[in-house]
Amino acid sequence: MKMYDIITKVKRGEPLTREEIRETVFSYTRGDIPDYQASAFLMAVCLRGLSDPETAYLTEAIADSGDRLDLSMFGNLTVDKHSSGGVGDKTTLIVAPIAASLGCKVAKMSGRGLGHTGGTVDKLESIPGYCTSLSANEFISQVDRLGIAVVGQSEGLAPADKKLYALRDVTATVDSVPLITSSIMGKKLASGTKNIVLDVKFGSGAFMKTPEDAEIPAKSMVTIGKACGRRVSALITDMDTPLGLAVGNSLEVKEAIDVLRGVGPEDLREICILTAAEMVSLAKNISSDDAIVLVTEALDSGKAYTKFTEWITAQGGDGEALKNTELLGKAKIYREVYANEDGYIHSTDAELIGLSSLALGAGRAKKSDIIDPHAGIMLNKKRGDRVYAGDRLATLFANDESKLDEAENLLLRAYRFSECKPEKQPLVRDVIR
Ligand code: URA
Asked: Does 121 map to a domain?
């Protein structure tokens, strides 16, 4: 069938067959379909949508466009977690070793940060010596031995998604539920894991602005993941304000270690317990309540911290720097930022804080930018805190003096004050199973 006819079918809302969808994805990946036709196809999908079966076919085709990792030797114990992207989101560094310390197999491929959101690979690379690329054999053997390995996305995995995503990025076709679902779940299927926990964020720092908006792709990903033979659940979580107090790569690693040692911020600990419990509940087929008890015990006993150090050092990370986090290094310059008024902090806009951190050098405006592992922000005050003019709101860290003014401006714009204490909002709004 000609690409012209496939585009016409989608434009008219006529259903595509599995073969038509597979042929479209494989031909485009091989370079046999020009970008202008693929763009028209994507725009037609964006405007007309796809049915659940069509989205499942697209997801499988993306997964089948390259290598598939075989984790079948680990039975049903493999579990992965995917975040839709946030600010200060260092949860993978905490939940992955918790789950591994409880017998789950975490064979994880993570991404880099872009724009105001951070990425796990950048955080891990801020640990001196940590290696984010392992051969397939090393990866599997580490998962077998320790229950955990975390690397960057392999080039051969879901190549269709790389090409399609790059095209979506420049054709205004990113915000389509079937395209988001098939992109994320296609990569997850290719990575071979049986159980998948999705952290779908909403709020100022997230792609989706309200819980209702976040539920739409979350429900779609759970449905399609199940249709493709996986156990999937999705947490709908608040990203109106950054998670924890640290934003920026090595600062976030230090904070993750604090949580694993029992002294980290309460919001971060809470979301990690709920996320890890969901992972353990799926992989070990136990109730959420039982999983919460196990996860809390793994954190409080130090078992998860021990697993974290085993994992990081196995991948070349400096074990001394995990014990004495000063050795993770720090930025040369800092600036404290103070409140100009009295009141309660009504909101701390996560996107603006992410942009402030980006301005300091902690993130990438475009994929080729080089990040500064030690740049970032430590927040002193967050939503709900009482402050008086002159109180310290945050400290900015950088290695280049010229970056501080813009970062300070962005940070101050992120803080909104009110006379009354804002109502506390739950971090996890819903769980879709
Ligand atoms: N993240 C992805 O990997 N794909 C999307 O389509 C959106 C977010």
From this structure: yes
Mutate to test the pocket of ligand 1, among 183, 201, 202 (most ligand atoms within 8 A of CB): 183
Q: Is the CB of 180 under 6 A from ligand 1?
A: yes
Ligand 1 atom, smallest distance to 179 CA: 6
Burial of residue 214, with CB atoms counted within 10 A of its CB: 0-12 exposed, 13-18 middle, 19 or more buried: buried
The domain that holds 404 is classified in CATH as 3.90.1170.30
Question: Tokens 């909002």 identify what position?
Answer: 425
Active site residues: 82, 161, 168, 183, 187
Q: Residue 326, exposed/middle/buried by CB under 10 A (0-12, 13-18, 19+)?
A: exposed
Question: Whole-model pTM above 0.85?
Answer: yes
Any ligand 1 atom below 6 A from CB of 208 = no
What 3-state DSSP class applies to 212? helix
* Ligand 1 pocket check for 182: Cβ under 6 Å: no
Identify residue 175 by its one-letter amino acid code: D
Q: For 102-133, how does the pLDDT look when each residue is reduced to its tens digit (9 = 90+)? A: 999 999 999 888 888 989 999 999 999 999 99
Model confidence pLDDT, tens digit, residues 220-274? 999 999 999 999 999 999 999 999 999 999 999 999 999 999 999 999 999 999 9
Residues 262, 148: one domain?
yes
User: Is residue 100 domain-resident?
Assistant: yes
Nearest CA to ligand 1 atom 5: 180
Q: Look at residue 168 and give its three-state secondary structure.
A: helix
pLDDT tens figures, 165-217: 999 989 999 889 999 999 999 999 999 999 999 999 999 999 899 999 999 99
Among 58, 162, 184, which is best to mutate for testing ligand 1, by the most ligand atoms less than 8 A from CB?
184
User: Ligand 1, closest atom to CA 182?
Assistant: 6
Are 132 and 373 a contacting pair, CB within 8 Å?
Answer: no
Tell me, what's the pLDDT at 22?
Answer: 98
Domain residues for 229?
72-155+168-323
